[in-house]
Amino acid sequence: MEVPPEMLDALAGWFAQTLSPDAAARRAAEQSLSSAASSPGFALALLALASSPRHDLQARLAASVYFKNELRRRWPKPSPDSPDDASDNNLPATDCAIVKTHILNLLLTAPPLIQSQLSEALAAAAAADFPAKWDSLLPSIVASLGTALSTGDVPAANSLLAAAASLFARFRNAFDTNTLRIDLKYCLEGFAAPLLEVFLSTSRRLHSSAANPLELRPVFDCLRLCSEIFHSLNSVDLPEFFEDHMREWMTEFRAFLTTSYPPPVEADGAPDALRAAVCDNLQLYMEKYEEEFRGYLKEFVEAVWGLLMAPTVSPSRGQLAVTAIRFLTTVAESVHHALFGTPDAMKQICDSVVVPNLRLRDEDEESFEVNWVEYVRRDAEGSDTDTLRRAACRLLRGLAANYREQVAALVSAQVQQMLAAYAADRANNWKEKDAAIYLVIALMQKPGATGGGTPVVDMESFFASVIVPELQAADWQSEPMLKATVLRFLKEFKDQIPKATALALLPSVTRFLTHESNVVHSYAAIFIENLLITKDVVQVPGASVVTRTSRYVAADISSFAQQIIQSLSTALNYPDSYENPYLMKCLMRVLGIATIAGQIVHEITARLVGILMEVCNNPKNPDFNHYLFESLAAVIGKAGEQDPALVPLFEASLFPVLQRILVEDISEFWPYAFQIFAQLVNLSQPPLSQNYMQLFGVLLSNATWDRPPCVPALVRLLRAFLRKIPNELNQEGRLPNILVIFRSLVSRASTEDSAFYMLNTLVQNVGFDTMSPHIGEIWSTLFTRLQTRQAVKFVNSLVVLMSLVSVKYGPGVLVSSVDTVQPSLFTTILQRFWIPNLKLIKGSLEIKLTTVASTKLLCESAVLLDAAAAQTWGKLLDSIVALFSRTDQDGAQEQNDGADAADSQRTSGYSVSFVRLQYAGKSEDDLLKEVNDPKQFLVTSLASLSAQSPGRFGPVIEQHVDPANKGALLQLCAAYNANIV
Amino acid sequence: MADGNNPAPPPAASPLQSHRYAIKSSAHNTAASRRREQAVAIGKERREALMRAKRVCRTPLSGSNESAIEDGDMVIDDEKEGLETRTAQAVQELKSSLSSQGKGAQKKKIEALRALRRLLSQSEVPPIEVAIKAGAVPLLVQFLSFGSSDEQLLETAWCLTNIAAGQPEETKTLLPALPLLIAHLGEKSSTLVAEQCAWAVGNVAGEGSDLRSTLLAQGALLPLARLMLSNKGSTARTAAWALSNLIKGPDPKAVNELIKIEGVLNAIIRDLEKADEELATEVAWVVVYLSALSEKAISLIVRSHVPQLLIARLLASENLQLLIPVLRGLGNLVAGDGYMVDSVLIVGHSITDQALSSLIKCLKSDNRVLRKEASWALSNIAAGSFEHKKLIFTSEATPLLIHLLTSAQFDIRKEAAYTLGNLCVVSAGSTDPPNIITEHLASIINGGALPGFVNLVRSADIESARLGLQFLELVMRGYPNGQGPALVERQDGIDAMERFQFHENEAMRNMANGLVDKYFGEDYGLE
């Protein structure tokens, strides 16, 4: 790998400049770098600079970061979908080959900071190429590992193991496929034996060496890396090599768990990190390979148990304890649960493992204070990282699965003991009460659950004597962690709290919204929000169905609403809660349910608009912003409907910020802004103000519609306009303008949905007199496109649109307008596209629309009633019946989902996607309210048609309808008591 | 949301390792079946098979006229050293017997062979290592030469059989003997000689895939298959056992050839019909490997009388040695060819009831292999028609499976979960998510299965976790009255799913987050 020194110097100069305080110099350097990036050899130059000892370390580090990013972005990836579009920007194959040859060696000689960058770069390249296209990598790692081992260079071995660990990490979480197994087999053949050798020899080194923590740290790291690789290589299946050498691995594992290293070593944390990796492996073996592992089980249970009871100075004992307890939980839930089944064992688990870990620890208190978001995520939401107390409770639940009564008795006694300790010394023992409540929550039997819970206390008396006093306490601001746990209990128990009790407690809980602790006011908000959506199951008399109704309605909470809203508004001003999503979600819920009027409407609108202005500066919290818009939609919707006089107020406060969103192109807010606009248009009285008409102009811009996430919102807005001011469409060339946009959208597959959406909205809302001058042109655009695009999706959309035209303007208009493009074109379209595609229509509204339209064609259209069209008539009927039969088989579930298939694609962590505002109203409405049941409509229409010419349609059906569908048709006739004569 | 918000489809699995998988929410592969053998083996060869892979021959083959002589002729288990000395001497004598000429030479040879064979067959720990070190194998190869007497061949093959039963390296020393051992399997040999050679070859084949390939390349398959057609029970048994070792794969070439050999299937049927349980056991193992590795073989077997015979054996026998291969073979057939469920196990026919009863019997067994294999077979039957699902659902199997799901070992839990999942859905064609059989789903949940599925979601095994998630999806979508989400929530299902919030497996992450969003997201709680 030869790179000219002057090139390295130039690069180093640029990188130095990128750190310059002078913005112009910085930009120039960045510009030089990005233009150099496209030339071949650039990545090699970066790598060379990163590993060039004669250059400045800062520049080398910057080069290594740049190199890593280049590899991540531009390393050729195998992409089955788009093989061609990847190639342009990819690194040249020659560069890739050179990188693969050199990167490992350069990584090994680099200083630590650069090494970690190169290690990630290696992982990025390996993700695509290893092992199939990089067969030298594993042998090189193994060879270098051998050298490191023989020279006793543990840090070098660790670099290599870290690289190997990143290569093998894929085996942990991937689905078991043959491709994966082929890769795994290759890795096992090359690496299983060397790994064991490194592991054993390093372990010997550990046992023999003197206790110098500085010297031992890399040794522990090495063993931990080996253990982590062990996990990866054993994740898919138990490999033969590992089964054959299980004794060797397990002997060392056990030694790590049972050996106490001198305090300075333990204090370093490295031994516990190794032990945690070991416990993860034990957990894996216990779960997946219990049969092979069972011989070791007893000794490991004792070892892990001993570990949990031993006092320690290690700072990372908490994470170790979580993995250790998780292992014990797996044992408790396994067929070997009897290991814990004796009264003594169970008491010991409870006293020595569970209870000590239940109590809040110093780091919990610290996290509660300084990192409340993380605290809530781990404590209340459940996350991928267990807390110690949650792990402890899960162990109890695991035990309770087999020893329910025993666990209940133990825990019950424990809870009483903790409460007694609290009663004896409240100020010092509040953590005891906190632990007791936590324990009760963890083992709570949830109503209707079929297992898992263990009743340990009488819940009603616990609620009354332990929980309520905390809520009503005069010193409600003290012991915030205890208060948070109390609020969490309320949330878990909300279904069982009688409505009157809950409402009576609401003012007390509302106080906590203004508690200065972020966790406490968040928990109060979470509880109120959850309480308000409590549902009751109502049995319908005499039927097997039940309905679910909201327990709390406007009348219940309106008297509390003002206080809650004001408290939330206050809390949103507290440090670190400016964008607290829990507070905003609660606000949304209260505004959506309660009825509010008067001054509070003005206040909260102004407050929300102010917050929106603020987040426009830097939208960073999608959840918070979503609830913010929902809250706005809820205020506008509920208050605006009650009191139309408020609408000008809303307009006045909202227009500036909504316009800012459009003008400054804050694209993630566009879909929201259009939905709010649509809501406002719906509420206003024509004539609309000039502001709205300007907005209408935006609607007529091609660029607006070119953003798919906005389209459903735009459609809402367009529809709102068309309903309010249908005649405006005819002015200033607006309709032709819209059709220009339509033509552009329909010409690309990625935006054709938007085109149909727009057109459907037009047809639904605009009379034929307005549309008629343009309809021929619309058809000819669509049919031209159809010549090159016959994808099911496109044809289905076309059938839906034609159905809509037929239903809205009449079948005669449909046929004649299509035939103006070309004589008899309608029949051709019907035969080639409509009839075959009708069977494929999805979505309940779409199915209803197309079947009703088809029925009307059958019974009302002269083209089809012509004797010469008998075959077409029969085939169309066949398709209708086939579609009905398919939807019957699909069952009810799809019908529920189909209606809003097109416009709701909620993705979390959205860049820009359409997110429907629930409180901004329903989006779709059924055009065909007069038709209740399309099946009934079909058979009764056919019956009356056939009654006009008896004997005519029977033979047509006989000849052209598929026997199965004919049978289905007859069944329908019978079901609706109609006859085709 | 017909397509949009469903859990992202997992990547299409290879047909060789997927279940008949109606529960899968994805569009793909609804009727594909999961074959037993992974096409790429990572783990050890299955233990049940390993225990029987090599066998020491202790007593003469039945029908041999030596049985009388052997009585009272036991090798006294003396000190190991003494045994070793005697073995080395025996090899020396064998060597010298080779060079002796004239009258009595043949007798001397036989006596030397017999002495060595006795040491190798009648000591508690056969002194194989010493015999090899003393150079026994090349000598024995010379004793196998064509034209030798049957008696000589028999003793020689017996010696080789027991050397081959040793440690891997010891077995490998037989390489030079293989061509002649195979040659003596043929029709020109006496039955006894052929049978003893088959035993030796079987031990070699049991060692591993390398030696299997060598044997196959040297043409061992055809003569062994012909030997299995023998009317003599012990010969057919030994040949079947040796064959089952030879065709283990992983290369399916041998089984594909075996099934093409005329008379093989008929011999299997004939032997399964006989009362002899030992013979049936070995033949059942042949069926296991045929059905594990060859589409062609499965297709022929399911259309023969074999399924009926396997089911009858499974129902009637209590012999674990027999039940394991019979059940596994049956499981492979059910998984391997839709014909088995669609056209053999027709609901309403007595064979189907027998099959179900026999599987239920195995589910109740104390033996974990039987329980696992039975759950697996049931999961594939449960992927069949609605009638199959109904039959299983209304049988005793459902409560048993729910019990296994919540209390058995990991791999059995997983199989039970597949079965229960399959009972709850019917395929809706290739492009739609499966339809839910509400009655089954509700009853299985009410029977207490939900905690078991939530536990699967927590599993370290990614396949199990996926299965758990897919079942939770069914519950939330299809449990009556929209109560599914609440049930899942009460069973700590949200907590379990949130484990995947930032998971590295993209499909799992999307599936879990999609479900949490869809059922517990913004519109949850609104009308």
TrEMBL record, chain A:
It holds the Pfam family IBN_N. InterPro entries: ARM-like, ARM-type_fold, Importin-beta_N, XPO2_C, XPO2_central. The keyword Aminoacyl-tRNA synthetase does not apply. GO terms for molecular function: nuclear export signal receptor activity; small GTPase binding. It comes from the Eukaryota. Signal peptide: none annotated. Residues 29-109 form the Importin N-terminal domain. One of its GO terms (biological process) is protein import into nucleus. One of its GO terms (cellular component) is nuclear envelope. The keyword Kinase does not apply. Transmembrane segments: none annotated. Keywords: Cytoplasm, Nucleus, Protein transport, Transport. It is found in: Cytoplasm; Nucleus. Belongs to the XPO2/CSE1 family. This is Importin N-terminal domain-containing protein. It comes from Lolium multiflorum.
From TrEMBL, chain B:
One of its GO terms (cellular component) is cytoplasm. Residues 1-38 are annotated as: Disordered. GO terms for biological process: protein import into nucleus. The keyword Transport applies. Gene3D superfamilies: Leucine-rich Repeat Variant. The keyword Protein transport applies. Keywords: Protein transport, Repeat, Transport. SUPFAM superfamilies: ARM repeat. GO terms for molecular function: nuclear import signal receptor activity. SMART domains: ARM. It holds the Pfam family Arm. Binds specifically and directly to substrates containing either a simple or bipartite NLS motif. Promotes docking of import substrates to the nuclear envelope. Belongs to the importin alpha family. Forms a complex with importin subunit beta-1. This is Importin subunit alpha. The lineage of its organism: Eukaryota, Viridiplantae, Streptophyta, Embryophyta, Tracheophyta.
